[in-house]
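Re: your question from the hallway

Yes, I did run it. Sequences:
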Amino acid sequence: MDIAKGLIAIGAGLAVMTGMMTGIGEGFVAGKAVEAIGRNPEAEGKIRSTMILGIALSETCAIYGLLVAILLIFVF
Amino acid sequence: MDIAKGLIAIGAGLAVMTGMMTGIGEGFVAGKAVEAIGRNPEAEGKIRSTMILGIALSETCAIYGLLVAILLIFVF
Amino acid sequence: MDIAKGLIAIGAGLAVMTGMMTGIGEGFVAGKAVEAIGRNPEAEGKIRSTMILGIALSETCAIYGLLVAILLIFVF
Amino acid sequence: MDIAKGLIAIGAGLAVMTGMMTGIGEGFVAGKAVEAIGRNPEAEGKIRSTMILGIALSETCAIYGLLVAILLIFVF
Amino acid sequence: MDIAKGLIAIGAGLAVMTGMMTGIGEGFVAGKAVEAIGRNPEAEGKIRSTMILGIALSETCAIYGLLVAILLIFVF
Amino acid sequence: MDIAKGLIAIGAGLAVMTGMMTGIGEGFVAGKAVEAIGRNPEAEGKIRSTMILGIALSETCAIYGLLVAILLIFVF
Amino acid sequence: MDIAKGLIAIGAGLAVMTGMMTGIGEGFVAGKAVEAIGRNPEAEGKIRSTMILGIALSETCAIYGLLVAILLIFVF
Amino acid sequence: MDIAKGLIAIGAGLAVMTGMMTGIGEGFVAGKAVEAIGRNPEAEGKIRSTMILGIALSETCAIYGLLVAILLIFVF
Amino acid sequence: MDIAKGLIAIGAGLAVMTGMMTGIGEGFVAGKAVEAIGRNPEAEGKIRSTMILGIALSETCAIYGLLVAILLIFVF
Amino acid sequence: MDIAKGLIAIGAGLAVMTGMMTGIGEGFVAGKAVEAIGRNPEAEGKIRSTMILGIALSETCAIYGLLVAILLIFVF
Amino acid sequence: MDIAKGLIAIGAGLAVMTGMMTGIGEGFVAGKAVEAIGRNPEAEGKIRSTMILGIALSETCAIYGLLVAILLIFVF
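Structure:
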């Protein structure tokens, strides 16, 4: 192996870290959903569908990072 | 491969990390939307459209990073 | 051992750090669930199932990181 | 390629990370706007225009970073 | 000793840092449990069992990191 | 190009990152302004002028960083 | 001394940093306990025992890090 | 140019980053001022003068960093 | 002096940084204690003793780091 | 110039960053003072003096960092 | 000067950064004290003494870091 390959591995590791904070964001969405259901259990359907939509939109950031990581490992 | 290529890979990894915090921001928007729907389920339409607008505006930051990452990988 | 292998180890270490913040996010979900049960103990079933769903969705981010780490250690 | 070019790529990657936290800030603005509309749906016009003004002012920070990144890649 | 071994040690150190934020998340769960018991002491059983479940689920992130650290030290 | 130039590029990248957190701070100001208008729509003028004053004062930090980045790129 | 030993020392330093955030988490638990006692002084026994249980569970993360640090210094 | 100059540039970049968080702190002051004016518009004078005093005191931290950065660039 | 000694110094610097966040955690405990006394001044004794117990438990994390730093400086 | 001088410059840059978070802490004090004056304008004297005392005590941390930075630049 | 001296300077810079977050923690204590005085001005004596005790306990973390920094500069 040569050193450049090792540096690319670090780059890939950094790239996938993009999803790091998404974990907080999604946890926040889910936490607020749990709180809202505790207050208003009848609105469970609406709350859960908005929760899943919000998490799906947030997930895009993590996927950008995964994409660049995969791209660095297999293509670069 | 040469070392410079490996360093560029690290640069690209750092660049795409720009989107890292956007995940929190978007999660915050979605979490507040979930909370607001739990309180006031009739205003669901307005809340969800503002949520998507807010997430779209926040997404721009993540896209700047992705753009610079792509630019470093394919153009630089 | 050669240096590149050491650099890949650093890359793997960075990659698995993706799951770092997920720990906060999941803790937030669980904390809010605990709070909601303290307020409204009868809704325990709904709250706990939403909590587990939210944690499962957040877990995906940590798994992306673990996947890239494993991929860097065994495949790259 | 020479090593200096690789180091400049890292510099550009760091520069564009300036926009990282702006994603949280803008998410906070949008989240508060969603919350305010949930409480007071008639004031939607004023709230949304203040939200867009606030996001535009915050965006300047991300743009400083993008500017320095572009400057490092194409001019330096 | 050779340098690669030192770099692997750094990688292992980074990997185990995954559990860093889990400490906040779990502290948040426990803090909310303490708060909920202060408000509603009769629901202590339910609150404490949900707290332990939530902490166990959050712990998985820290364990991913520990696993990769052990894997880098003994296997890589 | 020589290596020192690359290192200066990294220094400039770090310097402009000073503005990173300003994005959160300004987002906080704007978010609170949105919230205050949602509660008290008649005070919109006073709130918006204080918001712009506060953002202008916070912006100084980001400008210090931009200044040092420009200074490192063109003068150093 | 050789360089690898120095790098292992850095690895150990990073590993023990795992406990860094645990300090916040535990402080949060204790802070909430203090708050709950201020509100409801008769429930002091239950609150304090849950506080100690929560801190003990959070402490595990810090101990993983200490373990890997010790392992890197004396075994690796 | 020689390498030491490049390293000093990195040092200066790090030094000016001291002001990074000040942006949050000042944003917090301004955000709270906006909130307080929204609640109590007659106290605008007192609130705004305390806000400017608080921002001026916080600004000192950013100025320490700028000072050391300037000192590293021109004197060291 | 040789380079390894310098790297060990960096390791020790990182190790003692473990106590960094403990400062926030302990500040949180003390802040909540101040708040609770402001609300309920008669419970000052109980609050202050729980505060000191909580700070003592949090302090352990900072001490792990100090221990590893001392260990790296004098023993390694 | 020699390389060691450049590394000392980085050390000084890191040292002065100690004051980074102090900016948040002081901003928090000032923000809370602004909030308290908005609620209770007659207590302005007491609030402002406590605010200045609190900021002065927090400032010590930033001064430790500045001291070590100055010490590294001029004495080391 | 030799390189090891420069690396020790970086280690000292990192060590003194331990006090970084203490600034937030102490700011939190002072901010809460300001808030509590705004609510309950007669309890000023008790609040201020608890505030100073809490800040003194938090300060220990910053002092560990300063101690290791001084130790690295003058003894190591």
